[in-house]
Fold this sequence. Notes:
The chain has 320 residues and is mostly helical. The chain has one domain. It is built from 16 helices and no strands.
Amino acid sequence: MTQSGMTQYRDFGVEGILRDELTRGDAIIDSAAPILRHLLANDDHSLFGDEVVARVRGMVGHLADQMLLVQAQSAGSEDIETFLGDRREVLSAQLIDHPALLAHLHVLALEWQLTERLQGRAAIDTVLSPLLQALIASPDGAVAAVAMAMLAAQARFIQQVRRMELPLCELPGDLFHVALLTMRSCAVEEEQGVAEAAEASLRGTFDESRSRLGLASRLVTTMGGGAVAALSVAHAGVAIFLTALGLASGQSRGMAAMATNERQLGRLALSLRAAGLKSIAVEEQFALFHPDICLPEGFEQLRADRAAAILAMSAPALNG
């Protein structure tokens, strides 16, 4: 969707341009997890940024340590560090082998990177956005309480990703389940009872609705028709914007986050239009993410339902 690209594909019309961009973007997304898994295993960072790879590696290790710590406590181990050290590498390697979990961690690392970049480029606060501030001041006590919880969760997220950490309780429910099954599968036969006790303990404290992503979804859903305000990244902040974009465009939040990448130009334009934004609003949002890229000629003629239909033909694994 550069100027040269627009000239090359002009005869196909705006839908053809965007469909072609989406197809190329899908191939990139589907190849991301295998490439990232290879980099984590081999320390070869030539295709992905060192920062993203390091953060994903750190989050995997932190997830493993949290599960192993509960195992060690269930076993009554007197040497916690040795217990973790003897098992960390095996469990981390097994966690990396789960494409959906790896893709989720990749998205979180990219979200953090985007949050930092937009703070520097457009002064978009990493934690307290104008929308969140307004929701905190809502006369509806329930909405204000969720907004306050979201503020605290977002502040923790920024600090945790900087430290290359991710609490188990912040995983989506299906991935939390995957992590615990992986923990149990890695336990040697004589430690199966300990692993099962640790699993029961962890499940007993898990509540997805209290996670950062759960809170963001509740906030956007509660806004009803007013959720269009969350489709402005400058107004809503990155975290709430990505949740709103995923919900409004019929995609997963992870796919909405991927759409902001510089190699997913067509997906971002289609997502914003499918979410119901007018052409001028799409241009405004697009410019924040890609200030040097123009939308293709004739984009204003693309209807929201057509954008949604084109997106629906795309099926990278991350969108499942």
